[in-house]
Amino acid sequence: MSMNNLLITPVVIPLFTGMVLILFQRNIRLQRVLSLVALLVTSVISVLLMNQIRSGGIQTLQLGGWEAPFGISFVGDMFSAMLLLATSVVSICCLLYAFPSIGRKQEKLYFYPLFLFLVTGVNGSFLTGDLFNLYVFFEVFLVASYVLITMGGDKRQLGESLKYIFTNIISSAFFLMGIAYLYSITGTLNLAHLSIRIAEVGQDGLITTVAFLFLIVFALKAGLLLYYWLPGSYSVPPTAIAAIFAALLTKVGIYAIFRMFTLIFYHEPQITHLLIGILAAITMVLGGLGAIGYWDLRKILTFNVVISVGFIMAGLVSLTPEGITGSIYYLVHDMLIKALVFLVGGTIIHITGTSNLKEISGLIRHHPRLGWMFFIAALSMVGIPPLSGFLGKVFITQGSFEAGYYWLGGIGLLASLFILYSMIKIFMNAFWGETTLSVEEEKGTTKGLLLPIALLTIASLTLGIGAEGIADYVSQAAEELLNPNLYIHAVFD
Amino acid sequence: METLIVILVGILISIGTYLILSRQLLRIVLGSSIISHAVNLLIITSGGLKTGSPPLLGEKVASFTDAIPQALILTAIVINFAVTALVLVLCYRSYQNFGTDDMEQLRGNEHE
Prior knowledge:
The complex is a heterodimer.
Chain A: H1 9-23, H2 28-56, E1 59-62, E2 73-76, H3 78-101, H4 104-108, H5 111-127, H6 131-150, H7 155-186, H8 191-201, H9 205-222, H10 230-234, H11 239-264, H12 272-293, H13 297-318, H14 321-352, H15 368-382, H16 389-402, H17 406-431, H18 450-465, H19 467-482, H20 484-492
Antiparallel strand pairs in A: 1-2
Helix pairs in contact in A: 1-2, 1-5, 2-3, 3-5, 3-11, 3-14, 3-18, 3-19, 5-6, 6-7, 6-11, 7-9, 8-20, 9-11, 11-13, 11-14, 12-13, 12-17, 13-14, 13-16, 13-17, 14-15, 14-16, 14-18, 14-19, 15-17, 15-18, 16-17
Chain B: H1 2-20, H2 25-46, H3 68-98
Helix pairs in contact in B: 1-2, 2-3
């Protein structure tokens, strides 16, 4: 059995760095440097992992030397490793944005340790091969997010945060319920073992019902139809925090849905995947209506998060190599681009002091770089070639059509129009028009804020233009997702 | 026995649901706490109640009680404890700062 100790490092490094940083609460410089170093090391490790998986197949680690299914397995397939890398890039950029913007007070209130714990939980969720362990890592990043979202704390923020926290407490209770049911039916919690046992006994009505329970739980986290909490809670915290939430937290829910419905509950796609497809379609339409209906910058951006969740799910529904490939491209693209637009949006609010688009005008005169980077991000979200959203859109649409889900592919294309309209609305209102604010009247400066935005723009451009270079990685990830035996063999042999 | 416990879980969940539907923060906290406890009870039932001797390693005992659900709820209880403590602090803060424990009034002015 091959063991790869590198797999635990993306969890351990941010965790221990965060724990050490609690001790150095007052030394802000040290906190900044160490958290940046920890995330840089994690990103290097995720590149190493990607290459190991490329040459040696899915990597596993049995924690404590307990053989699966008795111990907890860590499994790194290409899908997880790519998400790890995207997580690292996004978190580095959000951290760089937080340096000048988050404020001394938050920095002393353990912002950096909490940020690292959030990354710990997200990385752990991507890597674990055990259902209960997945719950634990969900809780790790959720508890960190509970504290981060309340930071600052005006009245509206506290109200929205409480809504977010209670929603997640209830969905965690449902998660545990699902675990209890699945354990009493199958007698195991190891994902690979669950896959074997359910394939043996067949996915009957009872197991499909439990699958729906998990779908509810992860749909709540991902914002798939059950996104009612999302626009409120993602628009209240400080920009760096809102950006990392938008980029990472819903994506963990999406990851979990992909994992569960390609590895374990894949036997009845005409029921489960069709339902996901219907949810995805409704999500795209409602998200689109929200995005074009509001005039609040942050609301528009949060509804765009919702649309993309539905769109990524459409690739899963098709269960074709093209569809899954498209979802992976789009998921990685979406992590980068959502962080990017949230950072730009936050910067606009920082400059003008308002999030109402009707009160903002002509920013491009004094902030051309910000404007053009937002424009690139907007085109990329819509899927204009050669930017990063393009390939994902093409493959997802192709996959949906090939699988016969014409309505889903059609709604996906319609959703692109909603995205186009809403992003261009922001661009035209905020950046075009008469310049109403002189440089002296601006509420804040962009000093130091443009670097992380530029880095994310470059990352997104690289992903789009260099798509050929990662094509092999993505197709391997799609193959592993569509063939559960690869995962099972990696864990048990 | 299992059936009885599952019915009890159902009753507890109903009580929890009733409580979280109210507007007062403290009731919501209590409701979510009761739901979490109900779920813990469900997990312990999922392994089967009283199916054998204590889960100690030995050669003579033929059947063991499943130890995994117990390990699971131990973890779940700890996590639930921490989250409940955090939420209680937040509720206290909102009461202290804004003088209300009513979710409706915490919406702030910006809400449409």
